[in-house]
Specification:
The complex is a heterodimer of chains A (341) and B (360). Helix content of chain A is 38%, strand content 16%. Chain A has a six-stranded mixed beta sheet with strand order 6-5-4-3-7-8, with helices on both faces. A four-stranded parallel beta sheet of chain A has the order 12-9-14-15. In chain A, strands 10-11-13 form a three-stranded antiparallel beta sheet. By secondary structure, chain A is α/β, with parallel strands linked by helices. In chain A, strand 10 and strand 11 form a beta hairpin. Chain B has 360 residues and is mainly alpha-helical. Chain B contains 16 helices and no strands. The two termini of chain B are 39 Å apart. The chains are: A alpha/beta (341), B mainly alpha (360). Chains A and B meet through helix 2, strand 6, helix 5 and helix 6 of A and helix 3, helix 4 and helix 9 of B.
Chain lengths: 341, 360
């Protein structure tokens, strides 16, 4: 799915690429100093000591950790130049007040607003290794589950840059990952308050939907030619739907559902995540029309009762970062609007 | 002089001067394209630094005045791609030339008797294996490892199977070889499609391998493939006379003293070796092996004394150029670029040959 969404921003990234070429060109000029130090003139300034000065704890390094791919990573010092290969990683770094240490992101990054102007290392889901090396990172935060291909991770490591793979698959794993990144950034105190806030937000949503009925809910991630991609059985998204007071209609572990299975499961509520990216489905009437036209769908309870919601918060709901709590709340509001008056 | 050249019989080969122009021109083009490729990329590392870095790494000339990231970009990213493009492009074009002569079929390409399908099945199986057998995932297979070795072995194995199937008493008829190649390829492709269907999260990795890309080219991989490709080049170049003889037809070749069946086996193995080693570096890249031999034969005639080395030089040039385009276009797989360039050209060739041929 990332592919489909990534392409829409491809053209918007083009002028930035030109700008970036100009920026990195002056870095690479022969007069530049030889060693690959953490600061290099010409690039967005990042002074690693500045955000750390509050509570430096040099004893923590060298730091050994195990990432979400089960890899052991050793870091000699807190990195000052970080490249994020996934928007969720970017959001974690920025939520830990270390946005200024990012020297490269993806062309799908959109939050917080200031990361939009950072150099784009991932263009249309392809990692540009040359741009990555030119940004002289001392840490790369990759995405798991082949979102960053394992062959690319191996190449980055061969180039001498440590890689941490983040792939949280539950709220608890997001907390763990935030703590892990905070350890790397030496921002432990910030992580504690962030995670406290998140836990409080989750508890508030749970309290709001407590005791409600739990409608059978289909969250449509993508639909093509009669096949629906939804929250997979046991997936993160399915667990969020449960927390938001729904009974998720799941496909197999990959979330794939054929029309026949869908009719058998008969969802009472349909949330169209696709509407976040497709303005033609963004109104309730249009959304209902689109799904009613699909073979077999007009018989679904959700369609008969017009419980088809164009869900416009797909990004915060499916991006496993600090804003996942906003996503959870958006889900709960869509499923139980009466509880949020 | 001019009249004598025109009347010169095939076996004597092209004039020295013409070969020099064709090959020399090709080498100049290849050098220029390679230099541009090393000097151009998405980051701002330019020609001056690139040249200085290469001289420094190769001969120890000069002192490092550039950031170490520039050195990594030029030496570990751009140069392996350029060298890999040369090896794969030359290997595919040369293998294509051999198969077109051997099978006396202009539609033949390096993949025609099963190498592509066999290598693909091997690579896809290797890409998915770590998910099935966890201990294989323990690191080593990504650098040089499993995918490359399986692709190489799969390509060769498929050719051996095709050859064994096509073998009748006393010989291996060319038509049977082609048909067996087609059938075995179809079977193996079905296997690839099945594995893709079952691949789940790794589908992206599988697709990007199948599309062909030089993005994974690294010195260890090149060290594995280069001796195989260059070795088969040398052995193939030495056999230009026999290829010319085969071009006349198998009976005529026998009369010229060629042991036809043995020669077909040797040529097939050598061409399959170059192809499979190339595929192990880059995945399956289309059209280079079909179009380059065609173009050169149209332009310079069918003499393999010139055709073989020319196909290597021009195949290498084309692929390095296509990869430069692919790199600058945001890392799209080079297989897409070669097919985008190659298919229209092939259609043009086809139209041209139709127009030139008298209607029945």
């Amino acid at each position: 799915m990332g592919n489909l969404r990534g392409t829409s921003r491809g053209l918007a990234g083009a002028p930035l690429l030109v700008l970036m070429l100009a920026v990195s060109a002056c870095v690479a000029s022969p007069g530049a100093s030889a060693p690959a130090s953490t600061t290099e003139p010409g690039l967005p300034s990042s002074v690693p000591s500045a955000p750390l000065s509050a509570a430096p704890s040099p004893a923590a390094f060298p730091l050994t950790l195990t990432d979400d791919a089960g890899r052991t990573v050793v870091l000699d010092a807190s990195p000052g130049r970080i490249i994020s290969l996934a928007p969720s990683n970017t959001e974690i770094v920025c939520a830990l007040d270390a946005c200024d240490r990012l020297v490269g992101v993806t062309d799908f990054d959109d939050y917080p607003a200031k990361v939009v102007d950072l150099p784009k290392i991932v263009l249309q889901t392809q990692v540009d290794l040359e741009l990555l090396v030119a940004a002289e990172p001392d840490l790369v935060l990759a995405a798991g589950n082949e979102l960053t291909p394992s062959s690319v991770i191996a190449q980055i490591e061969d180039l001498g840059v440590p890689v941490i793979v983040l792939y949280p698959e539950s709220l608890e794993e997001i907390y763990t990952d935030i703590e892990m990144v905070a350890g790397v950034l030496d921002q432990g105190a910030r992580a504690d308050s962030l995670i406290d806030d998140m836990r409080r937000g989750v508890a508030a949503v749970e309290a709001a939907v407590e005791g409600s009925d739990k409608p059978r809910t289909l969250y449509e991630v993508f639909h093509s030619e009669g096949t629906t991609y939804t929250a997979g059985e046991g997936s993160f998204l399915a667990s969020l739907l449960e927390l938001a007071g729904a009974t998720p209609v799941t496909g197999d572990a990959e979330g794939v559902m054929e029309a026949e299975d869908l009719v058998a499961e008969d969802p009472q509520l349909i949330l169209l995540g696709t509407a976040s990216y497709d303005p033609s489905m963004a109104t309730s009437a249009a959304a209902l029309e689109v799904v009613a036209a699909r073979p077999g769908w007009s018989d679904l309870s959700a369609v008969r009762d017009a419980n088809v919601v164009p869900y416009l918060d797909d990004i915060v709901t499916t991006r496993p970062g600090p804003r996942i709590v906003e996503g959870l709340e958006a889900l709960a509001r869509a499923i139980h609007p009466d509880r949020f008056d | 002089m001019r009249a004598a050249t025109a009347a010169r019989p095939l076996a004597l080969g092209p004039s020295f001067g013409r070969s020099t122009v064709v090959l020399g021109g090709g080498l100049v083009a290849l050098t220029a394209i390679s230099l541009i490729s090393v000097a151009v990329g998405t980051s701002g590392v330019g020609a001056t630094d690139a040249g200085a870095i290469i001289l420094h790494r190769l001969f120890g000339i000069g002192t490092a005045t550039w950031p170490s990231s520039s050195e990594a970009i030029v030496w570990d990213l751009r140069l392996p791609r350029v060298v890999g493009g040369m090896l794969v492009g030359a290997g595919l074009a040369c293998a294509g030339t051999v198969f077109q002569a051997l099978l006396r079929n202009p539609m033949a390409d390096p993949y025609v008797i099963g190498t592509a399908a066999g290598a693909s099945l091997g690579a896809v199986a290797a890409l998915l294996l770590p998910g099935l057998i966890p201990f294989i995932a323990a690191g080593w297979w990504l650098g040089l490892g499993l995918v490359q070795v399986f692709a190489f072995a799969g390509g060769l194995l498929a050719v051996v199977v095709v050859y064994a199937v096509a073998r009748a008493q006393g010989g291996t008829p060319v038509v049977t070889l082609l048909l067996a190649g087609y059938a075995v390829s179809s079977l193996l492709s079905a296997g690839v499609a099945l594995l893709m269907f079952l691949s789940g999260d790794r589908l992206a990795a599988v697709v990007s391998w199948l599309l062909g890309s030089l993005g994974g080219a690294s010195w260890p991989r090149l060290a594995f493939a280069a001796p195989l490709i260059v070795g088969s080049f040398v052995l193939l170049l030495l056999r230009w006379r026999r290829l010319n003889a085969l071009l006349l037809g198998e009976e005529q070749a026998v009369h010229l003293g060629v042991e036809v069946e043995r020669e077909k086996r040797i040529l097939t193995v050598l061409a399959a070796l170059a192809t499979s080693a190339g595929v192990a570096i880059s995945g399956t890249i289309g059209f280079v092996g079909l179009v380059v031999p065609h173009l050169l034969r149209l332009a310079f005639g069918p003499d393999h004394r010139l055709l073989l080395p020319a196909s290597m030089v021009y195949g290498a040039s084309l692929l390095v150029l296509a990869d430069l385009g692919a790199r600058l276009a945001g890392g799209i797989p080079v297989g897409i670029v070669t097919a985008l360039l190659g298919a229209p050209f092939f259609l043009w060739l086809l139209r041209r040959s139709l127009v030139m041929r008298p209607r029945p």
